[in-house]
Amino acid sequence: MAAVRFLLNGKPFSEDGAPPSMTVLDWLRTRARLTGTKEGCAEGDCGACTIVLGRRGDGSLRFEAVNSCLMMLPQIDNCAVLTVEGVAAADGALHPVQQALVDTDSTQCGFCTPGFVMAMFAFHHGGEPAENAIVHEALAGNLCRCTGYRPIVAACRRIAHGPADRFVAELPALADAVSTLPPCAEYRHGAQVFLRPRSLDALFAATAQLPDALLLAGGTDLGLRVSKDREALPAVISVEGVEELRRIKTQRGALEIGGAVTYTAALPHLDRHFPSFGALVRRIGSRQIRNLGTIAGNLATASPIGDTIPCLIALDATVTLASRAGERILPVEEFVTGYRRTALAAGEVISAIRIPLLGAGEEFAGYKLCKRFDQDISTVIAAFRLERQGGKVARLRAAYGGVAPRAMRAASLEAAARGRPWAPAWLADIEDLLARDFVPIWTIVAARPIACVPRPGCCAAFSSKRPWPRRCGWRPYERGFATHPRRGACGRPSRQRGRTRDRGGALSR
């Protein structure tokens, strides 16, 4: 039987006796006996389980922080896995990240510290500047409930540009060692099976072999079923290794994102072509989440509060569905057919999402309203693609999520805007327009019919060029980690426990 093979803190390791639905966190703590990695929330919110994966790309090894609680064991096949036990030198000398945390008095109880070490280790190797917004983003996936964030932020700034660690010199050898590991295409344990095809043809063969299998892209949504619900999933097919699904192309006036492209990989392209979309994606989850989750997975969940779906609808995006029978292309608004329902047929996978680029006179804005700025499930998502001619609206595509059983366009608003000057003054009747388009559903997220939530806020913010609607919850961190009346002295919002679903890790049918 094939085994999962990887490097664990620099040493070759293999596993063939654990169930595939065992999380990487559970394997580390119970099989490898590496208990420095902690379990806090088991849903990818607290960061206590953070580890670093070294994955090959562009001929080298790239270090990325991930949530081990959401990953199934076969997902670390052909990776270099680093835990907090493996970052210090063999003689016990602390890693520069660990030393910085000591020097800035950044730990008290210590439970969260291993996760911070690993998140900062990935930041240390990212070569990013020590700017407030970037440091905040690097640490947003980790919670500390006793020390306060100011010393932790100071430690993170201290190691932004060095000193260099031993891993810089060891990186080529690590990359070579990973490249020699034989891939595990099929992992079985008892009645459970996990397939990891490497090409589209192999993926189609796998879906024909296991037609009822769940498709896995990153696991940030599907992973909750094993981390929280402790499901023993009988059959899973991972698309992470399918080369054809990991491509990003800009051609023929559109950005094309493959079905297995992570948020992290897509972000530079979104920032270049749709900056507001990129800013919204950064709020879907932490870096640990974005290093695993995919835009295609978020679309496939068909959640009414899926963050990317209204943006894709407003941008007039299409989705390419591939199977052995060929390809078919659907507009995203037709792909989502209802609450948690899509037009994906048996044997089909999302091979790509195509987003038309903005033309002359066009602009785009997306807004996410929720109780917390970071890593919170959405209450309402609003997205607008606007074309103006002569100061008046030539075309508006407005899409909302969280105000109906599925994300939808606001047809009455679009029709009313056509031919009008684009200014806040004409928005007085927007509530009546939105009420014509959406039928509310009850949800514990809003504690009332959520069609009442949009109001004029998002559209008014777009028309007046404000980056954020008034009275919408958390605003962006304009002053870095400063005292905020709602956040307290540490500069971070209080977090509430609750499942952060719909982040785009599952491509289940």
Describe the structure using short key phrases:
alpha+beta; 5-stranded mixed β-sheet; globular; 509 residues; 20 strands; 27% helix; 5-stranded antiparallel β-sheet; 17 helices
Name the structural class: alpha+beta
Strand content: 15-25%
Determine Rg (CA atoms, Å): 23 Å
DSSP strand tally: 20
Q: Which parts are unreliable, with pLDDT below 50 for 5 consecutive residues or more? A: 444-455, 470-502
Query: Could you give the order of strands across the largest sheet?
Result: 2-1-5-3-4
Mean pLDDT over the full residue set: 86
Helix content: 25-40%
Quote the distance from N terminus to C terminus: 28 Å
Q: Characterize the overall form.
A: globular
Largest sheet: 5 strands, mixed
In DSSP terms, counting alpha (H) and pi (I) runs of 4 or more, how many helices? 17
Tell me about this structure.
With about 500 residues, this protein is α+β, with helices and mostly antiparallel strands. About 25% of the residues lie in helices and about 20% in strands. Strands 2-1-5-3-4 form a 5-stranded mixed beta sheet. It has a 5-stranded antiparallel beta sheet with strand order 10-11-16-12-13. It is globular, with a radius of gyration of 23 Å. The protein starts with a strand and ends in a 46-residue tail after the last helix.
